[in-house]
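pipeline/complex-builder :: batch 7 item 3
reading input block
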Amino acid sequence: MKETLEEINRMQADGVIGRYAIGGAVGATFYLEPVATLDIDVFVSFRKMADGPLISLSPLYNYLKARGHETRGEYIVIGGWPVQFLLPGGALCKEALEEAVETEVEGVPTRVMTAEHLVAIALQLGRAKDHARILQFTESGILDAVKLENILSRHGLLEKWKRFGYKFLEGKP
Amino acid sequence: MSAQMRAISGSKRAMRRQLQALPFSEKIALLEQLRDRCLAIANNPLRRRTSLTVGNLKERDHGRIS
């Protein structure tokens, strides 16, 4: 993982990508016990094309391929880890990327989404594994309830959170 | 819940709390071990002989665990 993060940091320093933040299972591991995963989800802000509003992923792919990293489907393998680079599709992911916390892995600086943003994104996605992750977070007791409620409210997820509570938390979200 | 089950449940919660409190670097090292084990299990030829199960479907889905 150290090599993976060093390479992503180098790509950022070289101006290929803007800010980035780790999400998904690896991001959740920052707060919870480690959970098995085979890949890393990295949310990135990309540079815009000079002559239009379109965002291009090709500089990222070209940069990494030139440095000898192979692509595997939607992943790029860096330091033995398949990495999926994701654009922050909506306002919630954009905010999560912006407000990510700084940390380090074996001395390598990196950024991880906040626990509350990871929960909100998981709620928005709503797959079975996302529900399991939300339950892990609620059971861990590390969530800031006020911060989470503000995020859910800002992004229209309060009703979904209430439904999740009735279904999985005995009506006590 | 029986006393034995309560003890097991409590012990599991304690272990999760202990793992949760580890530094991120140590948790990443554990994550890498978990990944290697998942890959070893997924690549085991015995696993491929089983009939169609949810596990098989996951394996077909690029072996993605989470």
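note: Chain B touches chain A at residues 16, 19-20, 24-25, 27-28, 30-32, 34-35, 37-39, 62-66 (CB under 8 Å).
queue -> next item
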